[in-house]
Amino acid sequence: MDSTSAVTRAVADFAAACLDDGPATPVCVGLSGGPDSLALTACAVRAGLDVTALVVDHGLQRGSAAVAARAADAARRLGAQARVLPVEVGSRGGLEAAARAARYEALDAAREGRPVLLGHTADDQAETVLLGLARGSGARSIAGMRPWREPWGRPLLGVRRVRTLAVCTELGLEVHHDPHNRDPRFTRVRLRSEVIPLLDDVLQGGVVDALGRTAAALQDDLDALDGWAEAAAKIAIRPDGLDCVALDDAPAAIRTRVVRLWLREVGATEPTQRVIAAVDRLVTGSGGGQVAIGGDPGVRSVVVRSGQTLTVRLTER
Question: What's this model's pTM, rounded to 2 decimal places?
Answer without folding.
Answer: 0.85
